[in-house]
Amino acid sequence: MKVIVLAAGKGTRLLPVTSTRPKHLLEIAGSPILKRIIDQLIFRESISEIVVITHYFESLIQTEVRSWYNSSVNSKINFIHQKEMIGTANALLTAFEEIEKPSGHFMVIYGDLIVHNHINLMLDEFANNNQSSILGVKVDDASKFGVLKIDDGYLSEIDEKPTKVPNNSIINAGIFIFPALAVELLSSIEPSSRGEYDLTDLVSLLARKNHFLHVTECHEGWFDIGHPWQIIDANEYLMKIEQQNYLVQGTIEDGTFIKGNVYVAKTATIRSGTYIEGPVYIDEEADVGPNCYIRSYSYIGKKVRIGNACEIKNSIIYENTRAAHLSYVGDSIFGKNCNLGAGTIVANLRHDSKNIKVTINDERMDSGRRKLGVIAGDDVKTGIGVSILPGVKLASGTWINSGEVVSRDR
Description:
Layout: E1 2-7, E2 27-28, E3 31-32, H1 33-39, E4 49-54, H2 58-68, H3 71-74, E5 77-81, H4 88-98, E6 106-110, E7 113-115, H5 118-129, E8 133-139, E9 147-151, E10 154-159, E11 169-178, H6 181-185, H7 199-208, E12 214-218, E13 222-224, H8 228-242, E14 251-252, E15 257-259, E16 262-264, E17 269-270, E18 275-277, E19 280-282, E20 287-288, E21 293-294, E22 298-300, E23 305-308, E24 311-313, E25 316-317, E26 322-325, E27 328-330, E28 333-334, E29 339-340, E30 345-346, E31 357-360, E32 363-366, E33 375-376, E34 381-382, E35 387-388, E36 393-394, E37 399-400, E38 405-406
Parallel strand pairs: 1-4, 1-6, 4-5, 8-12, 14-17, 15-18, 16-19, 17-20, 18-21, 19-22, 20-23, 21-24, 22-25, 23-26, 24-27, 25-28, 26-29, 28-33, 29-34, 30-35, 33-36, 34-37, 35-38
Antiparallel strand pairs: 2-3, 6-11, 7-13, 8-11, 9-10, 31-32
C-alpha cells in the first residue's frame, strides 16, 4: 500500500514557533511529529512506499527525515513538491501526477497530527476487512471541525460547517484509506470559497457514488497540532503513556534526587542538588543544575543549559537554549538558541484563575488552559529581572531589556 503524508503547510496559527521550522518537525516528548507518523509506517511489510508532500521549509524536512533512518529504510520514502498551497486535495493530485497510480487502496495522513497508535489500528483493520476507512475521534467541542455523520458504522457525510453540534460528536481525524477510484475523482473537485481544493470533498464524492468509508473510532491520544498550547497538551499526554520506557543514563552527580519516571540521555549531565519530578525528558548534551527543580511534563532539549536555582515546570525548551540562573519557566515553549537573563520569571496563571487567552492571527482565542506561560520563537533574549505575563508570544529574534514587564506580544 502507498501512503501519502501531507506535510506542506506552514502552520501560521503556531507562530512564532513555526517561523524557522515547519510544524511537522516540532519535537514533542522528544520526537518530531512527522517522525512519530513515519515510525508507525516504515517497518510494516504492507507499506510499499511513503510519499511526503512538502512546500514550506521542504529542504529541511528532507534533510531531517533522511537523518532518522538508514539507506534501506529511506529507499521507501519519497518527497514531492506542492507548487501552490491550494488545499489538501490539490496536494494529493500533485502526488499522483508524479507517482504511479495505485491499483488498490492507499492511505492519506495529515502530517501535523499526534496519533498514538491509530495508524497501526487502521492498517490492522484493513488487513482483516479490506475496507476503505476514515479515522473519527470523539471530542468535547466539535464546532471547529468537520463532524462525521455515521450510518451503521459507515460515513454518510462530513458536515464541515456544523451549526448545532452535540457534545462528544465524532470528527474527521485526518487519516483515510481510500479506494483506487478516489484518484479518478480528484480532478472533479471544485474549489471552495477560499480557492482551495479540500480532501473532505473527495470523501463526499465517494459517498455520492455509494462508496462509503468505514469509521474507525478513537477516544483519546489524538491531537491536531494547530495552536501553540496544543503542543503542550500533546507533550503532557505522550509523556504519560511513554514514561514506562524512560531510562536514566548520562552523568548523574551525587546529591541529585530523581522521583518518578525520567529519561536522561547518555550525553546529558545532571548536577548536584537538582530535584527532578517525572515524567521528564532530558535530551542529549543537556546540562542541568546545580540546585534546579525540574517538574513534571518538562522536555529539556538537546544542548539546553538549565543552571543554578532555576525551576522548569510543564514546559518545552528546544535545542541550545540557556536559562543560566535564578529563573522560573512554567507551562511554556521556548524555541532554539534562546537566552534567559538571571531572574527571568514567566507568569502562567491569572489572578482570577480564568483561562488564558492568546492572540492568533489578530484574534483573541481561549486556550482552554488555566495555566499557560510564554510562547517564544528562536533566538529570543531576555535581560536580567524580566517578567513575562501569561499567554504572551515572543517572535523569533526578540530582545527584551533588563527589568521589563512584558504584557503584550512582541
